[in-house]
Amino acid sequence: MAVASTSDRSLETRTLRKVAIRALPFLMALYFVNYLDRTNLGIAKADISQHLQLTASMFGLASGIFFIGYVLVEVPSNLALERFGARRWLARIAVSWGIVAVAIGFAPNAPTLLALRFLLGVAEAGLFPGVIFYLTRWFPAAYRARIVAMFMMASPIAAAVGTPLAAWMIQAGEGTFGLAGWQFMMIGVGLPAIILGVICWFYLTDRPAGAHWLQPDERQWLIDVLADEERDVAGSFDFPLRRALTSPRIWLLAVVYFGVAYGLYALAFFLPSIISDFKKTFDVHLSIVQVGLISAVPYTLAAIAMYLWSRHADRQNEHVWHVAIPMGLGGLAIPVALYLHSPLLVMIPVCVAAMGVFSAIPSFWALPAQFLTGAAAAGGIGLINSIGNLGGFAAPYATGALNQFTGSDKAGMWAVGIFMVISAVVVVVLRATPDRDTSRH
């Protein structure tokens, strides 16, 4: 049943508004803390590197090793969410990652930091694809890109608001309870995850059938629409779980997401240090709080662009080019920033790159749901996210290693731009490739 054909548009609007108000603010808060906990190492780079005696490549390894644990547990975690329900499993994820995030604030040396960052990835695995899968259980296909965009606005908001907040906590927390500033910040942003995890257990509803906060007619409308869509997908594609995990289309989508994640986390971990280097490059002196505030500008613009671009994608019912265009433009913008000669001019292509990578993500996650349902959707989305997020490991480690090897940040940023452009090309090629693996046998 197409959403547009329902006889009662007011019922549709009323139902989806209630679901959005109920679910999205809480899920955004969860992802806000999640994004901050996995990227706060970037704003603390100078302090933590000095305190624990980290080289540039060691810092890159500490940033990226998170994703090794993340990748190893991602698919099983998402399948567990399908089996045990989102309420229980997302609560487990949040509490466990919060405990590890707080423990990082007490890391006495580099090996302990590396071990805890790995465990943080294990603990967090499944949150993002779990929420993406969860949203497919509550919103019809015609709304998913914009709903994912609204949920994902938490990440640029976390970067825009959380980065200067984390910088302030480092500065203000120095010496508090005998802690270094970076330790105070790590503990301070880890504790909210534990609190949200406990709330999650009592707050979320696994499926529309259990949504007693909806009126009976609203609940039944949502159940019927989603059931009809699932039958349509199941009738068009034969994707049991095993085939979903071995499908060339799924693996090509993972390649696309590798480029997305490469750009996303290169910006997250190295944008603050790029801005800090304005002192050396342009003789501009900035405090750590000023660095955080300037870092917030690209992410603020990215949040606005992401929402507007996703609405356009849903209205046009087209998602491939809504991934390719921003990724291509963002990838081309990254190297341009390396050859400009003022802080203001450098920030313009950086903003374009941030807007590009964030704008591509909601439309990207609308693609797997077009041919996956049930356990195949849970496993396939988990696989795409886990393999794609190897870019989250590769980006900080390769960028740090290239910076250390060449003595310049140019090579690392060129790599970021190249991977983003490759991602744009692959998603277009994927659209043009016949769906041999999707035919029924």
From TrEMBL:
Keywords: Membrane, Transmembrane, Transmembrane helix, Transport. Its main location: membrane. The keyword Transmembrane applies. The keyword Transmembrane applies. InterPro entries: MFS, MFS_dom, MFS_trans_sf. Component of the tartrate utilization system and may allow entry of tartrate and tartrate dehydrogenase. It is a multi-pass membrane protein. It is found in: Cell membrane. One of its GO terms (molecular function) is transmembrane transporter activity. This is Putative tartrate transporter. Signal peptide: none annotated. Residues 23-435 form the Major facilitator superfamily (MFS) profile domain. The lineage of its organism: Bacteria, Bacillati, Actinomycetota, Actinomycetes, Mycobacteriales. One of its GO terms (cellular component) is plasma membrane. The chain crosses the membrane at residues 19-36, 56-77, 89-108, 114-135, 147-170, 182-204, 250-275, 287-308, 320-340, 346-367, 374-399, 411-430. Pfam families: MFS_1 (PF07690).
